[in-house]
Amino acid sequence: xxxxxxxxxxxxxALATAVTFSMVTAKLYAHGDVTPQxxxxxxxxxxxxxxxxxxxxxxxxxxxxxxxxxxxxxxxNQNCARCHGLGxxxxxxxxxxxxxxxxDYGDEWYLERYRxxxxxxxxxxxxxxxxxxxxxxxxxxxxxxxxxxAEDAVEKHLDVLQGxxxxxxxxxxxxxxxxxxxxxxxxxxxxxxxxxxxxxTASGAPKADSVASRAAAALDGSDAGVASAAEILTxxxxxxx
Length: 241
Hints:
This protein is an all-alpha fold. The chain is 53% helix and 3% strand. The chain folds into 2 domains: 6-146, Cytochrome c-like domain (Cytochrome Bc1 Complex, Chain D, domain 2, Orthogonal Bundle), CATH 1.10.760; 155-240. Strand 1 and strand 2 (123-126) form a beta hairpin. The longest helix has 18 residues, at 223-240. The chain is elongated, with a radius of gyration of 19 Å.
């Protein structure tokens, strides 16, 4: 078992946790009835039986970063969003995990809670996921959470992103959306990538997995890609507002 150091918990999380425990009733904050859902970690390498002490997929240039984010997104939404909020945006009943530092201290705190859960006054606030979901799922969720953009990251580019969404939505209605708008789509993709590069994470992780980066990746030269990018921006910007 990895010991938790009280000084490693970010101040924002520590304060939020203290307020939560003091103000929220046991009934409202009893998260222990969450039933862990199996996680498909195919595409990620097996990490072995011995638990690592830091995220092996933090490097955005690494071979498995993108797949880790994908797996982590699905795993988080199945097992964590109920308490920690969609997109890791906490509603106040649990710590905002976006602010957990992307370093060894943050990894230590995260891993201790993930493996062992958390109990207070005999009530399970968080179930232990370690033995049930395994190490690969643990670090995939960690990668997804730490790549969440900072709170104002999308807001800074909201007008431009909304404009791209509207343009892409109109193009998606055309029969030959990709070929008839090739030059404009290339320009939009380039701008989306530029915006994605400017977005910062709340955790300090080196790269944000943002609505801009996902929309840019969807623009693959196909008609389906245009429609997909439009949908990504529609859903993502709606959630950000």
